[in-house]
């Protein structure tokens, strides 16, 4: 009787061991900790914003874009967008704002004046629409034309109004607003007082009102929804099959061992 009992104890120990191993294998896997997930690509540097491209597809802003290119101010703007911490905010009149411009004609301006007038349409800093409330409390704001070429802003319950001294206009749409580049559509050409002074008739004929085209800020689509989530999907299935193998093994060993034990006990 001594031998079978020892053997039975031995068998039980084996069983215990095998179920322990099974337990380890089948315990719910911790996929995140155990498997190296591919590290996501580092956040890309601020994306290059091609101003020429943006202005050519929105609007229509062809007249403004033509002036930008003929005066080479496009390079100044693009450089400000590319290479400065502050960024740039550009106010862009649509084509019908230029064609509606009867009284002070731009055709009589010198090259330098025209260049200043175009530079006058941008601020050397990125401003989100929400920033104009605070900006309006700060008095005249310098434009890229410098010196006395300033704009006054007022925020009228969310609508940004601009006063150039000669023309009053407002932001009618955000074409692009992602730091460092903001482009806002305005419904009139900004005529600097520094050029047109006060010797021009005080009330220019009202330009045909462009259709109010207030669209939400066209923020760039968020790129961060792409990286996560797809890589960890194969994990659960492989560990499940591991678990099944473990289960089969331990059932098998249980059967063999109990059968063997019974045999020994019977003999
Ligand atoms: C910017 O866009 C314009 C118009 O689409 C294109 O002609 C030009 O090559 C682009 N510039 C760069 C640097 O990609
Ligand atoms: C702005 O950056 C783009 C892309 O790096 C480059 O092609 C273009 O020449 C730059 N323009 C200026 C004015 O810095
Ligand atoms: C342009 O200037 C000339 C003379 O300086 C003047 O006679 C003419 O009326 C001006 N044209 C416009 C459209 O203002």
From TrEMBL:
<feature type="compositionally biased region" description="Pro residues">
    <location>
        <begin position="201"/>
        <end position="213"/>
    </location>
</feature>
<keyword id="KW-0336">GPI-anchor</keyword>
<dbReference type="InterPro" id="IPR045003">
    <property type="entry name" value="FLA_A"/>
</dbReference>
<keyword id="KW-0732">Signal</keyword>
<feature type="region of interest" description="Disordered">
    <location>
        <begin position="201"/>
        <end position="241"/>
    </location>
</feature>
<feature type="signal peptide">
    <location>
        <begin position="1"/>
        <end position="23"/>
    </location>
</feature>
<keyword id="KW-0812">Transmembrane</keyword>
<dbReference type="GO" id="GO:0009834">
    <property type="term" value="P:plant-type secondary cell wall biogenesis"/>
</dbReference>
<dbReference type="GO" id="GO:0005886">
    <property type="term" value="C:plasma membrane"/>
</dbReference>
<comment type="similarity">
    <text>Belongs to the fasciclin-like AGP family.</text>
</comment>
<dbReference type="Pfam" id="PF02469">
    <property type="entry name" value="Fasciclin"/>
</dbReference>
<keyword id="KW-0472">Membrane</keyword>
<feature type="transmembrane region" description="Helical">
    <location>
        <begin position="245"/>
        <end position="266"/>
    </location>
</feature>
<dbReference type="InterPro" id="IPR036378">
    <property type="entry name" value="FAS1_dom_sf"/>
</dbReference>
<keyword id="KW-1133">Transmembrane helix</keyword>
<dbReference type="GO" id="GO:0098552">
    <property type="term" value="C:side of membrane"/>
</dbReference>
<keyword id="KW-0325">Glycoprotein</keyword>
<keyword id="KW-0654">Proteoglycan</keyword>
<dbReference type="InterPro" id="IPR000782">
    <property type="entry name" value="FAS1_domain"/>
</dbReference>
<keyword id="KW-1003">Cell membrane</keyword>
<protein>
    <submittedName>
        <fullName>Fasciclin-like arabinogalactan protein 7</fullName>
    </submittedName>
</protein>
<feature type="compositionally biased region" description="Low complexity">
    <location>
        <begin position="214"/>
        <end position="241"/>
    </location>
</feature>
<comment type="function">
    <text>May be a cell surface adhesion protein.</text>
</comment>
<feature type="domain" description="FAS1">
    <location>
        <begin position="48"/>
        <end position="190"/>
    </location>
</feature>
<keyword id="KW-0449">Lipoprotein</keyword>
């Amino acid at each position: 009787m001594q031998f079978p009992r020892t053997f039975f104890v031995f068998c039980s120990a084996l069983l215990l061991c095998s179920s322990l191993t099974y337990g380890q294998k089948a315990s719910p896997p911790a996929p995140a900790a155990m498997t190296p997930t591919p590290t996501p690509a580092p956040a890309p540097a601020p994306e290059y914003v091609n101003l020429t491209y943006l202005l050519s597809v929105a609007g229509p802003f062809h007249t403004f874009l033509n002036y930008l290119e003929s005066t080479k101010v496009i390079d100044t703007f693009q450089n400000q967008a590319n290479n400065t911490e502050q960024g740039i905010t550009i106010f862009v009149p649509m084509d019908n704002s230029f064609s509606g411009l009867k009284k002070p004609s731009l055709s009589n301006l010198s090259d330098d004046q025209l260049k200043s007038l175009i530079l006058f349409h941008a601020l050397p800093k990125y401003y989100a629409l929400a920033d104009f409330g605070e900006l309006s409390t700060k008095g005249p704001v310098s434009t890229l034309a410098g010196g006395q070429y300033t704009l006054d802003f007022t925020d009228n319950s969310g609508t940004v109004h601009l006063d150039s001294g000669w023309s009053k206009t407002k932001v009618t749409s955000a074409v692009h607003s992602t730091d460092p580049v903001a482009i806002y559509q305005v419904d009139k050409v900004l005529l600097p007082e520094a050029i047109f002074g006060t010797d021009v008739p005080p009330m220019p004929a009202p330009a045909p009102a462009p259709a109010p085209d207030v669209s939400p800020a066209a923020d760039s689509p968020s790129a961060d929804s792409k990286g996560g989530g797809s890589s960890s999907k194969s994990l659960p299935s492989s560990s499940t099959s591991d678990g099944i193998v473990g289960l089969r093994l331990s059932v098998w060993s249980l059967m063999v061992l109990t059968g063997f034990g019974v045999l020994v006990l019977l003999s």
